[in-house]
Amino acid sequence: MTDASTAAAQRPDYFTPARLWIKGENFVQCRLCAHYCRIKPNLSGNCGVRANFGGELFTAVGNSLAAINIDPVEKKPLFHFLPGSKTFSVGSPGCNFHCKFCQNSGISQIPGAVNIQQRNLGSKVTPQGLVAAAIENKTASISYTYNEPTVFFELMQATAEAAGRHGLRNIMVSNGYMSAECFDSLKDLIQAANFDLKAFSADFYKNICGGRLNPVLRTLKAALRQGWWIELTTLVISEVNDRREELDALAAFIAGELGPDVPWHVSRFRPAYLMRNTPATRIASLERALESGKKHGLKYVYVGNLPGHSSENTFCPSCGLTVLERVGFNTRVKGLGVCPECQTKIAGVWI
Ligand code: SF4
Ligand code: SF4
User: Which of 42, 70, 149, 335 makes an SS bond possible with 323, Cβ 3.0 to 4.6 Å?
Assistant: First the structure.
């Protein structure tokens, strides 16, 4: 093989679309997420997925996935979006955050420095193949989930386009750290999202997740303005992000900036990854979050990862009737979109 043909054979298949990166002097800048990494030759960005290969922005993920499952949509969690439906769920290796409590660290955290030629991350798929599998399995939607889907942007975008043509909905489960440019490329393709709002503290985002709070808040507002159905999740950790003032500020932000109809899932932390020695969340911390949500007028606050807690049900915000009853991931529907007792509208996407 000649040098030229060797180089051609080694050239990675996948490059980031031109509008999502720029070329500088001896670096490329990725514009997919709010890290806006400047990457020197043969090095990768913060996520370990995007790398500078010969002055272009390569993705080590391309059309590869690390996880494929068929999940109840309630598992995302989305409680007000096509309840009782199944969603075809996919995730790739890598993440632009490095949360010390990550439950999916086995796929989200890529060890070691980038080596583009040797990288063989995940299993190869095609957007058309994923859509065909979703249809075959009678799912109502495709979810981009498990790791941060921004890092497998190209596959998500192409799959979402194909899914939309077949009447499937598209769901992101995201940390909200995508850039404005990335959001702009996705805004017409996604119908629903569950965004993490991991805390209401810049220090928490910096020290526990390796990110910043403000870009996340900006994404939440943009998604809502765009008409996506959004729900939020906060993993509450006792003595880490469960101070009453912080929970009050977080709930006030949701109610004031996003609106009281946005569901808030307060989820129980269980020891994982770099926080294996931190105890599971005390019930009192979760109940404090529930109180903050109610105090600030949020209509739908749910306690997650705590099987059997009655706060997994949806109650009519006017008369208190249970309109959606959940046991595990099974949903019993008593009223869909409207309370059968008092006719109050229940916010969500039901059909
Ligand atoms: S996706 Fe984010 S973390 Fe990864 S290289 Fe691009 S800007 Fe950096
Ligand atoms: S954003 Fe999610 S997948 Fe990524 S490190 Fe944090 S918890 Fe893990």
Answer: 335
Asked if the structure places residue 343 within a domain, the reply is: no
Q: Is residue 29 domain-shared with residue 176, that is, in the same domain?
A: no
| Residue to mutate, 172, 209, 212, 234, ligand 2, most ligand atoms under 8 Å from C-beta | 209
Residue closest via CA to ligand 1's atom 4 equals 47
Residue 341 lies in a domain: no
Same domain, 37 and 72: no
Do 171 and 30 share a structural domain? Answer: no
Whether residues 28 and 123 fall in one domain: no
Question: Which residues form the pocket of ligand 1, taking CB atoms under 6 Å from any ligand atom?
Answer: 30, 32-33, 35-37, 45-47, 49-50, 96, 150-151
- To 10 degrees, the CA torsion angle through 39, 46, 193, 22? -10
235 lines ligand 2 (CB under 6 A): no
The residue segments making up the domain with residue 230 are 64-333
CATH of residue 266's domain is 3.20.20.70
Residue ID of nearest Cα to ligand 1 atom 2: 33
This prediction's pTM: 0.94
Say if residue 29 is in the same domain as residue 129.
no
